[in-house]
Amino acid sequence: MTALNNIYIAGSYLHSHKTGFSARVVGHLSVGVGQKEERALSEIERKYKSLLENSHDLVYTLSPEGVIIEVSPNLFEHTGYRSSELLHQPVERLLHPLDRPIFRSFMEKVQEVGSFTQGLDHRMSLKDGRTKWYSTKLALVEREEGPSIFLGVTKDISELKETEFHLKHLATHDYLTGVPNRYFFEGALSRAREKVKEGSEYYSLLLVDVDKFNLVNDLLDHDIGDKLLVNLARLLKGNVSTNDVVARLSGDEFAILLKGVREQEAEHLAIELCNKVKQKDLCPVLEACDLRFTISIGVVEIDGYHDVRQILSRAGAALYMAKSAGRSQVIVAYANERLFSRLEETSRLIKLIKGADREGRFQLFFMPVVRSSDGEIAHYEALLRLQDGDGKIISPATFIPVAESFGLMGDIERWVVSEAVRFLEKNPLLSIFVNLSGESLGDRDLLTFIEESVENNPVVHGRLGFEITETAAVNDLLSAEQWIQKLRNKGCRFALDDFGSGYSSFAYLGKLQVDYIKIDGSFIRAIDQDPTRCALVKGINELVHSLGKVTISEYVENEQIWNLIREMGVEYGQGYFLGTPSPVPQEMMSHSTISDLVGNRK
Q1: Hey, do 2-156 and 355-598 end up sharing a CATH topology, with the first three levels equal?
Q2: Which of 3, 93, 113, 300 is a Cys-bridge partner for 333, taking CB atoms 3.0 to 4.6 Å apart?
Q3: For 450-487, what is each residue's pLDDT tens digit?
């Protein structure tokens, strides 16, 4: 028995003790052995032959030129070829045309290394026309006579690849409509921008939003709203080129990347889409209720000067103007920049925001976050509200986008942090989390202000936390890391909000030292009625736990959802079933009174 690189050749079979691999090799080596050793070798050969014939792996040998010498019997069963169709044929006979060059390169690499290397994933073309995925490892075996031969072990990984492709699709596509999600779209937009910058292509962007979509969910139900979004996605895809990209960015907001389309043509297409949506019966229930379904669109032609965030911001500003101007409107960003300041509603909100601190129009509402283990309140999320001139509450969804567009978030969040600190000083038994916008991550002065506020008020140590959305954190990962690290050093805690809302890779979680992960409410909603959503939430919860982090479930709207997430092991819950946002007076604020207000949800 002769040892070659830990591979032992016994008669016409070889075995590697290191890898556990067995295979037949063409030709016998002349090895001088005694009778006892001959019997031992025969027994080894018999065992290895049995293993080879019963192996699930496909085993074969190739000449240095890549010609098939011999194969294991199961390879014929896998591929459908007869021996006469494979033996003495180039290995390319088995390979998918697109994978032939990389397999040849793989063989060259093995010739250099001379031993097993990392497996190569590739496709094989079967005789019946099907294509399947396999993973191959090669070894170069030297013989005492004749040239070296390749020894190949191939595993069928088709099911694994199918699962992998499915997971990639889920990670880059919207689960409801099937169109690409924000993560996919921003990548496509970035590549389009580079082509525009090079001067090789031109593109335009349409940002589409459903008018008054919240009324559909409020007046009817979420299932009808979901059907409306599915039908809208289908209509948008059916009215653009196959080279264009239609994506769902969030709730009722879609984006269309138009290839080879300039601003004027994009505007005409946007108007056409608005008209088709009005004419199309996308939601029979709405028609029966005599409710008109319309969309508004912001248009921007992409240039090479603005980055992805700026392009989306300008399109968003155009969309905001379109929605402010009425239903079923189209606004082109560059052609209408002067209209920004003319919109009455925008101007009114800007004035309210700028004078809110001085006039006492800002107010904090408190929403409890409840432990699932004992039903006790762990902390509160501070939610900002703005009062108009008549004392009516304006939702953050209305004024926050305006504040972000006009650079007012820094002042707003300084007020929120100051109020939160004062609140904690007067209520030593409570803990509060406040929200940080994506715009704030680039504001170093705001970070310094918060650090100083915490340092000057040691009583808030361990009781003040911050929430930042997954989208904001990933869009500016470096700044997010710095904020989290610096404020955690001051005794603050962090929660990553809206987790799972559109990013395929969770590798960034290792960089963000957050204390809590808040599972996006779109997954939680209706999990008591939708097994698919329930499975998604369970998977997300297990993923987060595997990373050593704690989960909070948003949108706990009823007892069934609360029971489900508790069974899954989600540590905390938040939602109207557990407690609504409330402006409880500070002099009455204590843990016991808040518990009474919220109710015990054990």
Answers
A1: no
A2: 300
A3: 999 999 998 899 999 999 988 888 878 888 899 999 99
Distance from C-alpha of 293 to C-alpha of 232, rounded to nearest angstrom: 10
Residue 197: pLDDT above 70? yes
Given this model, what pLDDT does residue 514 score?
92
Residue 127: what residue type? K
Model pLDDT for residues 483-502, shown as the tens digit of each residue: 999 999 999 999 999 887 65
Using only C-alpha atoms, the chain has a radius of gyration, in whole angstroms, of 32
Taking the domains of the chain in order of start, what are their residue ranges? 2-156, 165-342, 355-598
Amino acid at 135: S
How far, in Å, CA of 465 to CA of 544, rounded? 19
Query: Over 60: is that where the pLDDT of 341 sits?
Result: no
Q: Which CATH architecture has domain 355-598?
A: Alpha-Beta Barrel (3.20)
Alpha helix stretches (DSSP H) within 306-382: 308-324, 344-359
The two tokens of residue 64 are 């240095």
Q: Residue 58: phi, psi to the nearest 5?
A: -95, 125
What's the pLDDT at 307? Answer: 86
First to last CA, the chain: 72
Determine the Cα–Cα distance for residues 601 and 595; give it in Å rounded to an integer.
Answer: 10
Are 453 and 447 in contact by the 8 Å Cβ rule? The answer is: no
Confidence of residue 251 (pLDDT cuts 50, 70, 90): confident
Helix axes 344-359, 396-405, angle to 10 degrees: 100
Rounded to the nearest 5°, which phi and psi values hold at 68?
A: -70, 125
Q: Does domain 2-156 have CATH number 2.102.10.10?
A: no
**Closest alpha carbon to 247 in 208, 275, 201:** 208
Distance (Å, whole) CA 65 – CA 149 = 9
> What pLDDT is attached to residue 25?
42
Strand order in the sheet with 7-10: 2-4, 7-10, 13-16, 21-24
Q: How far is CA 356 from CA 141, 398, 399, 412, 586, in A?
A: 79, 15, 12, 9, 20
For residue 559, how far is the Cα from the chain centroid?
29
Residue 499, strand partner residues: 519
| Rounded-to-5 percentages of helix, strand, coil across the chain | 45, 25, 30
Pick the CATH number of 165-342 from 3.30.70.270, 3.40.50.2020, 2.30.30.280, 3.40.50.2000: 3.30.70.270
- Could you give the CA distance from residue 253 to residue 247 in angstroms, rounded to a whole number? 9
pLDDT of residue 355: 87
Q: Mean pLDDT across the stretch 39-61? A: 62
Distance CA 382, CA 466 (A): 10
Question: Which residue has tokens 């962090």?
Answer: 494
Q: Which residues contact 346 (CB under 8 A, 6 or more apart)?
A: 320, 321, 324, 340, 402
Average pLDDT, the chain: 81
- Buried-state track 315-327, b at ≥16 Cβ within 10 A, e below 16: bbbbbbbbbbbee
Closest CA to 192 of 286, 90, 109, 266: 266
Which residues lie below 8 Å from residue 283, measured CB to CB, with a gap of 6+?
A: 216, 224, 227, 228, 231, 293
The helix-helix angle for 444-455 and 409-426 (nearest 10°) equals: 10
Q: Are strands 432-436 and 377-387 parallel, antiparallel or unpaired?
A: parallel
- Report d(CA 232, CA 253) in Å as an integer: 11
Q: Write down the residue that tokens 């009114």 correspond to.
A: 348
Helices (H), 56-99: 73-79, 83-86
